[in-house]
Amino acid sequence: MCGIVGYIGSKEKRGFLINGLKELEYRGYDSAGIAVLKDNEISSFKATGKLTNLDAKTADFSSEGFGLGIGHTRWATHGKPTEINAHPHWGEFSYVIHNGIIENYKEIKDTLVSDGVTFLSQTDTEVIVHLFEKFIKIGENAFSAFEKTIASLHGAYAILLISKKEPDVIFFAKNAVPLIVGRSAENEIFFSSSDAPLIGWAKEVMYLEDGQYGWAKCKELSLFKSLKTQALNFKALSQDKILAQKDGFRFFMEKEIYEQSIVVGETLMGRIKDNSIVLDELKDICFEDIDAIKICACGTSYHAALSASYMFERLSKIRCSVEIASEFRYKQPLLDTKTLFIVISQSGETADTLEALKMAKNANMKTLAICNVDNSSIVRTADFTLLTRAGIEKGVASTKAFATQVVTLWLLALFIGDKKQNISQELMRLEIDALLHTPLVVKVNEIVHEKIRRLSKRYLHGHGFFFIGRDIFFPLALEGALKLKEISYLHAEGYPAGEMKHGPIALADSELFTIALMPKTLLYDKMKSNVEELSARDSTILAISPEPFDIADDFIKTNLHTHPMSEFFEMMVITQLLALEISIRLGNDVDMPRNLAKSVTVE
């Protein structure tokens, strides 16, 4: 979720680059940097932390007159958020910025190192500039070198590269990561990860397609794909900044649901290698001394914790208990130094969770934070941290933060299982295959979304909702109900399906809507019996399953998967979209629901 900007023209470059990065800071705020090429000299500045640090560092820098500029705001994936790992990265005469992941960077890096190239950073991005310069040195012209570089890369990327070899050109490429080209009436050329930085600067824009690349200079732009020249399809740029920040989506929450495919991929970046889980952040934990796990969290993070409890016991073969942080603090808990204490927080500032963490620290327990915000209070307090890498989430009702928390915890469960030698190589291979498939699973199917939009009009009344599931789908039912109540203000409960007959089924009638999570990979027949019990009491049933269910009033078909977590994540997206569409039909402010705040910093 990094953000990039670029500029070709005669205006002061710093102004556009810094202001553009401010519009993109929600995409990453671990570090930022800019590079300006003017009069065949490149000036580069980098700073860690918030963009204000880079702004202050460049306050006295000016670049009037014709030149090129590129800028980047980073959300760390390969390598820690340090200044040396910040973009731009440089070679002998070229600079590059990049958003995405180069999957084969290790192979490229090994080859370059054997050729005598010295690397400064821990990032995958640095291979791009060194590979480009390698092709230059063997006689390729600059564009041919760039073309060969792009052809050598496997993965997702948006790339801007500048070089003294072509001091009036920005080379660019796009694959599976957004990149927009803009131009003004004064023949300036702009690049950006989204529309917002371009408003007030560019008159029209072109949204690049996957596989497109090219070069740009003042008044000129050439676009290619698979070595063939492409037509330039510019269109007028909307001047609505809020709409631009939403990338055309109606609400930030909708945008964030659609972003889950990208951010889950970033959660996995650099953490799977050679059929094993690599969590360098935890290399100093001795898991031989750990015989149990206790997780503390609130709200959506609590539901992620409950989901993880199934995975820790099933995959890691280690006892796991889950506590609501606000209750944990006052129950006089028994704390054991052989228990790993995990806290989960999207913001890293959740007051109850932070206080629970301090209790664990005072009891000399090993502590681990699962968090989305580096340098937050919880991250600074915990002994160890795994960042979820979701990027800024503007919608108050969490979506992509929950998805990345569950993926991070899944990685952790496999990591601990391996460290304790409780997981076979074959099971590890199957789990990693499912993990790597997850970014595709959470990609929104537009046809399914449209069906949910049409279905939603039937679920605006009644006296409440039951979301029901079994096993790991019970925490998902809790999360689905929470999403709906947060933004629709309709009463909803999540329940273990097998518990319905122990009381809640008394509420069943035609005005009770049951959202049934019915995976084929896990307890399907049991789940089917539970739903039949509700249907016999005339409850209105919406079944979510890969297999049609005859007695359901409504049915959303999911794909047939072989792993329960693939079904989990596909159903997660469906429940998020259902809550979204019901809320929109009710006319609510989806992004800022009443009575709620994004970060809860009071008890």
Short overview:
The protein is an alpha/beta fold. The chain has 17 helices and 27 strands.
Question: How is this structure best described in words?
Answer:
The protein has 603 residues and is an alpha/beta fold. It has an 8-stranded antiparallel sheet with strand order 3-2-4-1-10-9-11-15, covered by helices on one side. A 7-stranded antiparallel sheet has the order 5-6-7-8-12-13-14. Strands 19-18-20-21-22 form a 5-stranded parallel sheet, sandwiched between helices. Strand 25, helix 16 (524-536) and strand 26 (540-545) form a beta-alpha-beta unit. The protein is globular and about 80 Å long. The protein starts with a strand and ends in an 18-residue tail after the last helix.
What count of helical segments does DSSP give? Answer: 17
Number of domains: 3
Give the strand order of the largest sheet, numbering strands 1, 2, ... along the chain: 3-2-4-1-10-9-11-15
Mean pLDDT: 92
Terminus-to-terminus distance: 31 Å
Which CATH architecture of the largest domain would you pick?
4-Layer Sandwich
Uncertain segments are: none
Anisotropy-based shape: globular
* CATH homologous superfamily heading of the largest domain: Aminohydrolase, N-terminal nucleophile (Ntn) domain
Largest sheet: 8 strands, antiparallel
Number of strands: 27
Q: What gyration radius follows from the Cα positions, in whole Å?
A: 25 Å
Based on secondary structure, the structural category is alpha/beta
Q: Tell me the helix content.
A: 25-40%
CATH fold-level topology of the largest domain: Glutamine Phosphoribosylpyrophosphate, subunit 1, domain 1
Strand content: 15-25%
Q: In the CATH hierarchy, what is the class of the largest domain? A: Alpha Beta
